[in-house]
Structures are given as C-alpha cells and as structure tokens.
Specification:
Ankyrin_rpt-contain_sf, mainly alpha, 22 helices, single chain, Ankyrin_rpt, disordered N terminus
Length: 457
C-alpha cells in the first residue's frame, strides 16, 4: 500500500484492519500504539520486502509483472543493488524474454505452463517493468563482470520478442518498442551486436531482427545509435538481407519502400553484389516485388545488372510454375506483371535471349516466350481483357525484327489465330494421340519431335 494512501487512513479504518488481523501481533501493536498508522506502514513494508518462494521480493515482482510492487520496492531501497555485483532483476527480465523467443520458435514444443511468463498477453507489462528497471539504474555504477553482455542480450531478445509475427507478442505499439529499445541503447546495448547461435555455428546480427520487422522507425533509431550502413553479414549488405526477410510478403509495399529508402540514404551501396552475385534490383525482380524494383531503379540501381552466370533481370521465372503451367489467380495479378515488364522493356532490358537454366521440355526459353505464354494462358483460362490485349500489341511490336527463338515464333503464330480455331486443334490432337499441349512448348514432358509434328498439322 503506498505510504501517502496509508497516511490518509482514518483511525477507525485502521482499527477495523486490526480487528480483521486479530489476534496477531500486528493487531495488538495497532491497539496499543498511539501512532498506529506508522506501525501498520512498517509491518506492511516488512511483508512487501520479504522473500517469495526463495527469491527476493523484487525478483518475484518482476516475474509476476507486478509494476506497483516493483515501483514501491525500488523507491524504498529494496532494489537488491550491490555495487560491483550482477543485478539479478535485469537477469530475470532477460530470462523472461528468452522464454518468449523459445516459445515463438517452437510453439508446439514449449507449452506456456513451462515458461516464467504464464500468460501470452503480458508483453506490455513486461516492457513496463523493464523500463522501470532501466530508469532505476541510471547513474549507478554498472561495473560488474558481464554487464555489457547482459545488456546486449537483453536488447537482442527484447527486439526479437517484440517484433515477432506471433500475434500474442506483437501487441506492443511502435512507440513502446522505440521507448524500450532507446533505453537499452542508452544503458549499453550495442546496435551492431551479433548473437552467436551455437547450434548452427553462426553469428546472427541484432540488425537482422530489425530488418525482419519492417519498422522504419526502429531502423531509424538504430542508425541514430551507430548502426553501420556498410555492415555486411555473410556477404550480404543491408539491402540484400531485406530480401532474406521475405520482402515479398510485406503487407504494405509503401512501408517497404520507405524502409529501403532509409538504408539507401544511410549509405548502403545499391549496386553491390552478394555472394551469389545478385544485386538488390535482381532480388527484387526475382521476388516479384515489381514496385520495389522500380523504386530501386529510381534510386540508381543498375537495371542491366547481371549475375556471374550472365543472367539479367528478365531471366528469372516471371510466374511460379506448377506442372508446367504458370499459376496465377486473377487478371489484376497479371496486369501488375505486364505493367512491370513493359516498363523493363522500355528501360532496355533484353527479353529475347534464351534462358540457360530455366528450361521446360529440354528447351531453353527466352523471357519473351514466358511473357507470351502468360498472355496465351490468360486468354485460354480467363479470357484476354483490353489491357492484356494492349500489352500483347506492345510486345509484338517490340519483337518485330528481333531474332527470337522458335518457341516465341510458335506463340506469336498461335496468338494471331482466333481462339476457337486453336481450341479445336488442341482437342483434335488430344483425341488423336492422348497428348494435351495446352501449354504449348512450355508444357510438361512434351516430346519435342512429336510437338514439331503436331505443330505442322
């Protein structure tokens, strides 16, 4: 009970408390002492600072996220502080965050009842306790062995738990995350810290957690506290590592663009290759992040960059494939692809030369063939709307006079014929030979010689 509230208790209420406690020693003291308020306060203080289950009162308050009790103990010198000795309350908070991260990594293996955190919705309460502890040690001599490691670990596990995509631990507001993170940095947390993951014999930078979070405010704070924009991890710049963090699944592409812009503005080289000779632009195209690829180009990315094997941006699968057929859901998704590749063609990216790796039916195919296949499949499966027809006209005009391959020629011929005639021809071939070539030369397991024969009929 806070002292100011205790001091305001009327004598009658204090005596009622004494009646309730009777026949305890406290009851007798209150009845016989003139200053019964002071006596009650002293006895309640003894109860507040008493050990709980073999740990100090403050550690117990931290474990239970009892912010009121923790505040009372810290303000009444019951903080367990001994100069030059590890301060256990911070270590207790660290163990809580480690438990959270263990649970997030293995939700089917680590049940809640085995953790020091007993409820899945205590993120805010635990963060408030951590803020209270960090503010309490301001100005105190933090000279005990292992203090630096403790703060680095606290910073790492706090950010990992607070930016997790687990619904039960993503409830901290950005403001709360920034508040705690800045206090951790001010108290010795290193924004460039790398955690050693012994099980995999690797170093995992704190910054990777920040990149995974896609929170521009958090990244900006890290730059403020000394993150090196030239930082690399296993041959990957900050930009490359953004794509390792599933950039294709960021819900708000505008947020991703803001995030990447901060990295570029800080000085991370935009055209540097990673260990697989990918630039950030090539990774953006490969992940089908069309707007992000265009943004990178607007900031100076080389759209003509090539991998060490000679692949350019166009020589990536433009769609995900399943059993030899491109998989798409809607006209809208296809319009995004057509819009990007019209832009890419206008930038001068070569779509005519053949693939050397992505082969279907044993035949190397050009990006132009893939684009024509998408248009061809869209017309068959969904019908060809005016926007797609416009792109087809643009593509045909671009290919005019180019030395394209046989597959491209086949699609150009097919797309020039009425759809009804083409469907009738496919059905006739299917009845005749049991071969269904609705995917044209990109079909699965199509025999090349038989396809040539069918094409001539």
């Amino acid at each position: 009970m806070p002292p100011n509230l205790l001091g305001s208790l009327p004598a009658e209420l204090t005596l009622e408390i004494a009646e309730y406690l009777k026949p305890s020693e406290l009851s007798s003291l209150i009845r016989t002492q003139k200053y019964h308020h002071e006596v009650l306060q002293q006895e309640l203080h003894k109860l507040a600072i008493a050990e709980v289950g073999g740990v100090s009162a403050l550690q117990a308050a931290v474990l239970t996220r009892d912010l009121i009790k923790a505040h009372y103990l810290l303000s009444h010198k019951a903080d367990d502080w001994v100069d030059g000795t590890k301060w256990e309350p911070l270590a207790v908070v660290l163990s809580c965050y480690k438990d959270v991260c263990d649970y997030c990594h293995a939700p089917m293996v680590v049940p809640w009842e085995t953790l020091s955190i007993k409820e899945p919705f205590e993120a805010a309460a635990l963060a408030d306790v951590l803020v209270l502890l960090l503010k309490h040690i301001e100005g105190k001599p933090r000279t005990w062995p292992g203090y630096e490691g403790l703060m680095n670990n606290l910073t790492y596990f706090f950010i990992e738990a607070s930016t997790s995509d687990r619904a039960d631990f993503s409830r901290l507001s950005v403001h709360q995350i920034l508040k705690v993170t800045e206090l951790l940095f001010l108290n010795g947390g290193d924004a460039n810290f790398e955690m050693e993951i012994e099980a995999h014999d690797i170093m995992h930078p704190l910054l990777n957690l920040v990149l995974r979070s896609w929170k521009p405010e958090l990244l900006r704070l890290c730059f403020t506290y000394g993150v090196d924009p030239l930082n690399e991890s296993y041959g990957q710049t900050l930009l490359h590592r953004c794509f390792d963090s599933s950039i294709a699944y960021v819900r708000d592409e505008n947020t991703a663009i803001e995030f990447l812009g901060l990295i570029i503005d800080a000085g991370t080289p935009i055209n540097k290759e990673n260990h697989d000779s990918y630039t950030a632009f090539l990774l953006a195209v490969e992940s089908h992040s069309w707007d992000i690829a265009r943004f990178l180009a607007s900031r100076g990315a080389n759209v003509h960059a090539e991998r060490i094997d000679g692949f350019n941006a166009a020589e990536q699968p433009m769609m995900r494939w399943y059993n030899g057929r491109s998989v798409f859901r809607s006209h809208g998704q296809l319009q995004e692809i057509y819009s990007f590749w019209r832009w890419a063609i206008e930038q001068g990216i070569d779509i005519v030369r053949n693939h050397t790796v992505y082969q279907f039916g044993g035949n190397p195919l050009s990006p132009a063939t893939e684009l024509l296949n998408l248009l061809w499949s869209e017309e068959v499966d969904l019908g060809l709307p005016s926007e797609s027809q416009e792109f087809l006209t643009f593509l045909v005009g671009h290919l005019d006079g180019k030395g394209y391959d046989e597959a491209t020629a086949w699609y150009l011929k097919e797309l020039s014929e009425p759809l009804g005639e083409r469907k009738g021809k496919w059905e006739w071939h299917q009845r005749l030979d049991g071969i269904f070539i609705s995917s044209g030369p990109i079909g699965k397991d199509v025999d090349r010689s038989r396809w040539e024969e069918l094409r001539g009929n």
